[in-house]
Amino acid sequence: MKIAMFSTKSYDEVSFCKANEISGHRVTFLKPQLELETARLAQGFEAVCIFVNDILSRPVLEQLKDNGVRFIAIRASGYNNVDLQAARDLEFTVVRVPAYSPEAVAEHTMALILALNRKIHKAHQRVREGNFSLEGLLGFNLHEKTVGVIGTGRIGEAMIKILTGFGCKVIALDRRENPVCLASGAKYTSLDELLALSDIITLHCPLLAETKYIINEQNIAKMKTGVMLINTSRGGLIDTKAVIRGLKKGQVGYLGLDVYEEEGDLFFEDLSGTVISDDVFARLTTFPNVIITGHQAFFTDTALQTIAEVTLSNCTEFEKTGNCANAIK
Ligand code: NAI
């Protein structure tokens, strides 16, 4: 299959070239994001392969259709960046990689919790400057703390295993109870109770109309004073301006983010020589109790290799059968 792969980085080329030794597709690596202005680059390709910040709105999909594209392979698990109704109307098959390494994301989530709690970011800087004072570095024991997990699918499940290993009490929220999470000791509860009882809240649900801004002004007010909030799922789950107000009041005591609602203009690029014009993001970076990583929770060697292998085998399956088990319905 002739595949135009957008938003590619050097590490994508490495993992996809390796996986393609078996699959044998004709993959063209393109650096630009897929958007209306760049959709013409897909001319003559049957498939496009996209990442999390390639936005496939209806006009982009129409342009792809005119270019002869009929297959969209998302090299990620989330698919909130694709207008699925438009894709259906235009008879595209859209596939994804449902699970490549939930542990990679869960481990990064735990890294954010530990770093925020024990102030590793500050301690690292201090020691490098010869400052060995412990003032301001006081942490808390995770043991016996209550952690609220919103979304107990693959990543939530891996997260709960890690948290119970640390001796945390886990309360959870999902539309359906996951028996593995129950067996790990998690107790399901309502959103209001989770907000009220949790010392730490971590988000692992997808971004849907119903979960957009699940963390908003109202819900922040229901949380414990000084709560730790972690989002490694999708930026749109959090109303960032409301969280900034919560941080300024001390209602939110710690914030760990791997995703940001306007990350499309920032993440995955080296912008160190430019001025950041997003004032909301810039304000976030001024807080001493906020750690932000640039959508790297998935970024392990195991995950990259699995993403490449599953994406290319999705293409092979569709090419051979006209169908794919990983198609989004
Ligand atoms: P999953 O589909 O296995 O689990 C999601 C869970 O959320 C499901 O159990 C679902 O029932 C639940 N859910 C749906 N609506 C809900 C609601 N209103 N309230 C509570 N729970 C709800 O997905 P998985 O693999 O665990 O991934 C979760 C999210 O993590 C993805 O949607 C994606 O946005 C994000 N992600 C982030 C990555 C990163 O690098 N930062 C990498 C991979 C995924």
Walk me through what this model shows:
The structure is a single chain. With 329 residues, this protein is α/β, with parallel strands linked by helices. The chain folds into 2 domains: 2-100 and 300-321, Rossmann fold; 102-292, Rossmann fold (3-Layer(aba) Sandwich), CATH 3.40.50.720. Helices cover 37% and strands 15% of the residues. It has 12 helices and 12 strands. The protein has helices spanning 10-23, 58-66, 84-89, 102-118, 120-128, 154-165, 179-184, 191-197, 217-221, 240-249, 279-284, 301-321; strands at 2-5, 26-29, 47-50, 71-74, 93-95, 146-150, 169-173, 187-188, 200-203, 227-231, 252-257, 290-292. The strands form 2 sheets. The chain has a 7-stranded parallel sheet with strand order 8-7-6-9-10-11-12, sandwiched between helices. Strands 2-1-3-4-5 form a 5-stranded parallel sheet. β11 (252-257), α11 and β12 form a beta-alpha-beta unit. The protein is globular and about 60 Å long. The model has no long low-confidence stretch (mean pLDDT 97). 1,4-dihydronicotinamide adenine dinucleotide binds next to α4 and α6.
Question: What is the terminal separation in angstroms?
Answer: 22 Å
CATH class of the largest domain: Alpha Beta
Number of DSSP helices?
A: 12
CATH homologous superfamily of the largest domain? NAD(P)-binding Rossmann-like Domain
How many domains make up the coordinates?
2
Fill in the CATH topology of the largest domain. Rossmann fold
Low-confidence stretches: none
The amount of helix comes to 25-40%
Q: What is the annotated CATH architecture of the largest domain?
A: 3-Layer(aba) Sandwich
Radius of gyration: 21 Å
Ligand kinds: 1,4-dihydronicotinamide adenine dinucleotide
Strands of the largest sheet, in order across it? 8-7-6-9-10-11-12
- The shape is globular
Number of beta-strand segments: 12
Mean pLDDT: 97
What order do the SSEs take from the amino end to the carboxyl end, as H and E?
EHEEHEHEHHEHEHEHEHEHEHEH
